[in-house]
Amino acid sequence: xxxxxxxxxxxxxxxxxxxxxxxxxxxxxxxxxxxxxxxxxxxxxxxxxxxxxxxxxxxxxxxxxxxxxxxxxxxxxxxxxxxxxxxxxxxxxxxxxxxxxxxxxxxxxxxxxxxxx
Length: 117
Prior knowledge:
By secondary structure, the protein is of the alpha+beta class. Helices cover 37% and strands 17% of the residues.
C-alpha cells in the first residue's frame, strides 16, 4: 500500500465494495466527478469523503466489449480540483477504452497477443 495522501489505509486493508463510490458507478455506469466534496450538493454528506477527507474525485467505468463491468479508473485528492473539464473526461474515457480493449485481447487470446508486443 502506497498512501501518500495519508488516508489511513494499511497494507492488506480493503474497502467494502458496497460502501464505495465505485459501487455507485457500477450501478449507473456514468462517470462520477466531484470537484469539492465539502460543498458538493450530492456528496457533501456522503460518508466516504467525510471519513477519508478527500475533496476531489473522478471515476469512469471500465466496461468490456461484451458489456461486463470490469472496474473503474479513478483518481482522488485531498484538495479540491477543477475536474468538470470535457477534455480531461474524454482523456480518461480514452484510457478506460484502452484498458478494456487490452483486457478483451488478453481474454480472447490468453494474453498471447500482448506477450508478442
